[in-house]
Amino acid sequence: MAERGQLPPPAKRLCCRPGYGPGCRPGQRAGGGGGPGGGALCAGPSSAAGAAASSSSLGLLPLGKTQSPESLLDIAARRVAEKWPFQRVEERFERIPEPVQRRIVYWSFPRSEREICMYSSFNTGADDPGGAAAVSSSSAVSAAGGAGTAPGGAAEAAADESRLPFRRGIALLDGGCVDNVLQVGFHLSGTVTEPAMQSEPETVCNVAISFDRCKITSVTCSCGNKDIFYCAHVVALSLYRIRKPDQVKLHLPISETLFQMNRDQLQKFVQYLITVHHTEVLPTAQKLADEILSQNSEINQVHGAPDPTAGASIDDENCWHLDEEQVQEQVKIFLSQGGYHGSGKQLNLLFAKVREMLKMRDSNGARMLTLITEQFMADPRLALWRQQGTAMTDKYRQLWDELGALWMCIVLNPHCKLEQKASWLKQLKKWNSVDVCPWEDGNHGNELPNLTNALPQGANANQDSSNRPHRTVFTRAIEACDLHWQDSHLQHIISSDLYTNYCYHDDTENSLFDSHGWPLWHEHVPTACARVDALRSHGYPREALRLAIAIVNTLRRQQQKQLEMFRAQKKELLHKGVTSITNLEGWVGHPLDPIGTLFSSLMEACRVDDESFHGFSDFMENMGQCKSLEYQHLPAHKFLEEGESYLTLAVEVALIGLGQQRIMPDGLYAQEKVCRNEEQLISKLQEIELDDTLVKIFRKQAVFLLEAGPYSGLGEVIHRESVPMHTFAKYLFTSLLPHDAELAYKTALRAMRLLVLESTAPSGDMSRPHHIASVVPNRYPRWFTLSHIESQQCELASTMLTAAKGDVRRLETVLESIQKNIHSSSHIFKLAQDAFKIATLMDSLPDITLLKVSLELGLQVMRMTLSTLNWRRREMVRWLVTCATEVGVYALDSIMQNWFTLFTPTEATSIVATTVMSNSTIVRLHLDCHQQEKLAGSARTLALQCAMKDPQNCALSALTLCEKDHIAFETAYQIVLDAATTGMSYSQLFTIARYMEHRGYPMRAYKLATLAMTHLNLSYNQDTHPAINDVLWACALSHSLGKNELAAIIPLVVKSVKCATVLSDILRRCTLTTPGMVGLHGRRNSGKLMSLDKAPLRQLLDATIGAYINTTHSRLTHISPRHYSEFIEFLSKARETFLMAHDGHIQFTQFIDNLKQIYKGKKKLMMLVRERFG
């Protein structure tokens, strides 16, 4: 709390002698038995009685001890000390006896340790602000503070619970470190010794505390600690005064003592005071003396003099000390960290501290939230994000949500003064008008009606949305300022458990009582629930519970009325196929979280030994003991059905909210919030163990949701953009399955739909033109969370598949639902895989029905992805073959016969047929010869069909698959020849040609190679082209077959290849051996080498020389000096080729001379040419 060791601020109270001017305090003090400087122990007349009274106020009376009755003086003094500023007491009574003054001063110090704890530690458990969570949580605020944090401060407290200020204060007190405790009037002082540590010497801290009406109003400590909360030394001194009041010496305010002195005594007093502290106070003393002696000085214009120990004046605000500067500084630091270093968690802890203060009805709650809000509004990132059009981070957005919700609680305080509410409203409107103030639903303006308007059938929804101002995070709090608590019906509901009207027979929609005579509360549901949250937040749990029960009873009655209304209009609505959204504002995901509020309020009421609900007791005994949350069906409330409890009511209202049909909101953040809140609420429900009573509630609500038409998200006809029920239905399904399987499946199957992805969903009637569903296929209207929703739909389907294992009828029903409702191939593939895993578990025989479901889903995936790009397609095809193998030989045969609806030709031949014909498949299925031949026949038929459809990619696979059948093989070969002249590339033909040679068909290989050569074109500079090896192989094949074959291919080579080095390589190889030397089919040849002067080699030689000449000129056009040496080596290779001709020497010389003449400007290069070639 910024306890910086400075002197306390000047006292506001002015005290003077009796009779000294008109502003004097009336009345001479009676008694005065203490004499000057006299004091008494705080226990007053009876130390034992005082101690007992103090202990009883805390509920800490030791067991077996008796307590004597309090005196009337103590009772009166305690009440006066709580409520009246001491100045009012002085003005009210002419004479105040000294014993009375002492008892008032005594009782004015805080009596509860709970507030001390609240101001010296975080509370992570806001629902139990006096419980163990308050003291076991981390006071890590100043961890982010950086410079100025004292050693052993809050930064270390984050890592060590024992270093928390409250814990450390208790340790210092228990260790006897508190000394020199003195209470003078309303001022407490003392010293706290910090024991020596390994690296630090013992230090003594001087602590001073001012208090008024049982609240600490200011603190100072010489430790210099900078933090939002009190330091351990302040805690230690405060607890010393609370726990050991009989050991604290008590004096009346110092002005009272001075009144009893004569002039000589006063002069002696002042001179001694100056002597003891002359270095500190002498300048001040001289300055005051000069001013007092000056007739016209300001100090002489007022009566009396300030007394820091005299208590509060009438005008002083009575609130606990809060260091505003530190609050602002710490929030600013946390915001600057942008969510790193746990700053988001620390801000949430600050919000929890605000809630804790509100629950204690501490005015600092609103004060602290104001300081936090000012820093949030000053965050420079707001302007940057608005300027750049980028969204704030999700965690930061949630902090703003909590900020808005807290302001809603504050302005709905049922006992706040009108002037206070007016002040808050003014401040809220100021923040609301700032350009960068965040909008309620993220980046999109909310078009919902005013908070105070209920929403009957879309009222106010047809206003022009473009003219409406954006709703900010403060809009609801501003609107809530118009709400009040004066309604007599509301007052009766929250104030009494006996408010009934059994003679009330009004059965209209807005009747005040139901048929049982129990009170109902008709108000816009989020607004009504905001009242509940406000009551809880301000420490009125019983009132909040009463209102919550009235709201839930109202919702249940409305639910029944809606069901009756729908049944009356069912035929007409279903015939038209039209639905309407009756709630534009969904309750789950709503900024005010109405369902969460009702659920939490009711669950708090049924917690076992919930101290936060039943009152604060035995605080110190429970320190450090954190009880696990257990829930029980506590005795029924007055307004519950027989057998019902708070627990059943909480569960039922959660189910009502989750099942409500509601429109998907605009904007990414709002949509994510719907998903997140739904999952959070379901997570809380999952913590509750279902018993027979709760199962009845589940059955009741499931039946209603299925039959309630447009009022339910599970109704027969819903709006196209209604929020899907997949996550909720999965929870309902798993909960109901052990108890009512038929209802469980009916609910889950109804929820499987996802109409927003269907082109002809019901159009709906929402009185908003842009919300009417279109019949034009539009896969992504404005749903940013669609991928998450589809994954939840997939999870629901997977859950049903798992549960339906072994049940043929159910599996078929689930399969039909999946095929009808799931539109994502990846999700259907996941379901197929899930079904396959479940069907083939190692500990049981395969479930053939589930395997067939898996196969059907796999086939659907194949059909869906056949004409679309999908990076997992190859994996999907391989998996399908595996699945079909598990199903049996007939499944494999079926997918091959229908391959064209499932696979591309390449997939069918390279993956499907190849895998089916593999040895592993034959062994896995234990196939006999007949079955093998049948599969092989289907595979060959598939191969030929694929080769006809896509010869480029399937011809080779077709030839491979048809090897063992002569007719099929010949057919495949003919398909290749037919396609070779048109659609096939040289690389594909070369590949098939090499395959033919490998299979012993050299002439067919030669034929395909010549066809490939006609498609090839190698330019002069493509000496690393991947087809070079194929060209060399083709020439070698032709050379091996004989002179005629070589003579036939060389013209093709000359025409297709312009690269000199490739041509020279071919030429050299052809001159090394005799054509046909590697004879085939018993052919022999003459053994003579071919002449370079005759065809076909002469043609090849001329082409090679010509290629070298052309390549040389091309390279010289753009040659650089660093390539000169490489060029000389190229000319050397050219010379070798030139010399193969009988007149090659002459040709090369002429070629070099031409180069010298043409490129004589490249002097250095030509010099290198002369050096090498003359």
From TrEMBL:
PROSITE patterns per record: ZF_SWIM
Positions in coiled-coil regions: none
Keyword Zinc on entry: yes
The keyword Nucleotide-binding appears for this protein: no
Entry-linked InterPro entries: Znf_SWIM (IPR007527), ZSWIM4-8_C (IPR048370)
Any GO MF annotation of the entry: zinc ion binding
Assigned keywords, A-Z: Metal-binding, Zinc, Zinc-finger
Pfam families given in the database record: ZSWIM4-8_C
Residue span, SWIM-type domain: 205-242
Domain of life from the UniProt record: Eukaryota
Gene Ontology CC: one annotated term: Cul2-RING ubiquitin ligase complex
Name of the featured protein: Zinc finger SWIM-type containing 6
Organism of this sequence: Cairina moschata (Muscovy duck)
